[in-house]
Structure formats: C-alpha cells, structure tokens
Amino acid sequence: MRVLVVAAHPDDEVLGCGGTLALHTARGDAVQVVFLSDGVGSRATTEIKANELAQRRANALTAASILGTLVPHFENFPDNSMDTVPMLDLARALERHVANFRPSRVYTHHTGDLNVDHRLTHDAVLTACRPQPGSEVRTVLAFETPSSTEWRTPSAATAFLPCWYSDISRSWDQKRTALEAYGSELRDYPHARSIVAVEALARWRGASVGMHSAEAFSVVRHLE
Q1: Reported confidence tier of residue 50, pLDDT bands at 50, 70, 90
Q2: For the chain, what are the domain ranges?
Q3: Predicted TM-score of the model (pTM)
Q4: What is the rounded CA–CA span in Å between residue 119 and residue 145?
Q5: Cβ-contact 63, 17 below 8 angstroms
Q6: Pairing of strands 105-109, 139-143
Q7: If you ran DSSP here, which 8-state letter would residue 183 be given?
Q8: What φ, ψ does residue 161 adopt, rounded to 5°?
C-alpha cells in the first residue's frame, strides 16, 4: 500500500496517526508525509523563527525515522494563516504530491478542528483527491488532533465521530518516542497535548472497541 499523510504542521502526523503509520511501515507499506506549514511562523521574531523552524524540521525528520516513513516534504504556506491563501494554491500543491506518489490511502485532519490550518488542510485534501475516474485514492481517513479536535465548539457539524479504529497496542511505544522527538511542542499534564493525555486517549479509543490502545478515524471516503 502507498499511504499519504497530509498534516498542517510537524507533530500533527504523530499526534493523529503515529501509531498507525508505524504499523503501515512495519508491514512494508510506503508512507509519505507532507506538511503544509511550519507550525512556528506565527509565534516568534524573525531571528527566533529561523532557529525554531530548523529545529522543528529536524524533529520531523527524527520522528519520520522512528516511525519508518519516507523523508517528509515541507510546503511553505503561512502558519495559522492558511486562510489568507487561495484554496486553489493549496489544492494544486497537494495535487502534485498525489500525482507523484500515487497513494491508495490518505490520512488528514478532521474537518471540524479548531485550528484553521487543520480545517483548510482537510478541504485541500478533498479537493486534490477528488474521486475522478482513474483516481488511485481508495480511502480517505480523518484523524483527531489533541488540543484542536476536542477544543472546537461542539455541534453536529463539528463533532468527531470515529468509526474506523487502528489497533496500536504494538506500536504505542514508537508513537510515544516519536512524540518525544517533538519535545518542545509537548505540554505538562493535564494539557491535552501531553504524553499522559495522548496515552489516555489511545487507551480510551482502544477500550471503546475492545483493544488495549487504538487510534480512531472518521471515514471521509472508502471504496471497497
């Protein structure tokens, strides 16, 4: 299987589906990660930003090595300001990756996340992966991102409703190690983006379906 992960920022891929990616690579699937933004551009002065950007990219490379994915691709759309970019530009950037990599499965953000970059990433993926005749994309799954998915005002339109689960009981340790590679992005418990909280979520998602640990997804599209 050829698997494409489209994430707004480095660390989203591990938070959302790191355990699942480790399972894919363990069975020989090719996994390519694409980041649309750097995750630090909205935070700091130019001098600090350059240092943080280099560190964040180094962290992403370390996480990729831990999970066994291919070297990630980094796009340069503005952090937490992707709503200033035409959707056509976002979709065209992803269309190039889809055409080059030819994935059969795509993982990306939930459409109802609080973070604006997450929501636009989801929309760009759907645009780039339109179900046209001849498309090789068979499955599109949306993951939850702690400290974004659950922070959105709850409603029928924004609720994350998982119906696809991945048993990560054997790959949780890899996910945890990959998360630790993004140490500057983690917070102390009881923050939702802490190791303790992420593990609690994995255990709850697992217990929901009779597994020790799991990652949960909503199905955007699946062609059997």
Answers
A1: confident
A2: 2-222
A3: 0.97
A4: 11
A5: no
A6: parallel
A7: G
A8: -120, 90
